[in-house]
Design a protein that fits this description.
With about 150 residues, this protein is α/β, with parallel strands linked by helices. Helix content is about 35%, strand content about 15%. Helix 2 packs across helix 4. The longest helix is centred in the first third of the chain and has 17 residues. The radius of gyration is 27 Å and the shape is elongated. It starts with 19 loop residues before the first helix and ends with a helix. The N terminus and C terminus are likely disordered.
């Protein structure tokens, strides 16, 4: 029950805040975020090659250059034509400040395309290129490999 003062004249001062509209708005925002969160895609979908290597911990967010199975190239999530890649990397402030990027290429991309992209990065002044692989498959030992090794 709220405290109020009634100093005559029928005027009542409310000392409590009505939180019901604020709760309504919060519930609507929660529902909107719950519906839209699955629709947001993260990054470019590529089928990464597998590697048996320990994952490297990254302390800060790095620039990721992705190549999908159709040989489309992305800086972050923005598609970049192949002929403009060097110019885009040379003008990218993050790439020029760090002098490094991570290559996120699909396993079905030909080796020559990956080398061309790495060469464009080098010409743009990026000296360190890291390769992203699928770490989940790296720790597994497949039975197929064991069978082939026994032959």
């Amino acid at each position: 029950m709220g405290m109020g003062s009634n100093r005559g004249g029928g005027r009542v001062t409310m000392s409590e805040i009505n939180v019901t509209p604020m709760v309504d708005v919060m519930l609507v925002l929660l529902i909107i975020f719950m519906v839209t969160a699955p629709l947001i895609q993260q990054g470019v979908k590529v089928n990464l090659p597998e590697a048996k290597a320990a994952p490297v911990e990254a302390a800060e967010k790095k620039l990721v250059l992705s190549i999908d199975a159709q040989r489309r190239i992305y800086i972050g999530e923005a598609e970049v034509p192949v002929d403009e890649l060097e110019k885009k990397l040379a003008s990218n402030a993050k790439a020029q400040a760090d002098k490094e990027l991570y290559l996120h290429a699909d396993r079905d991309v030909p080796y020559g395309v990956v080398v061309d992209v790495m060469a464009a990065a080098q010409r743009a002044g990026i000296t360190n290129v890291g390769m992203i692989t699928d770490p989940a498959a790296g720790g597994r030992t497949s039975n197929k490999g064991k069978k082939e090794a026994r032959r």
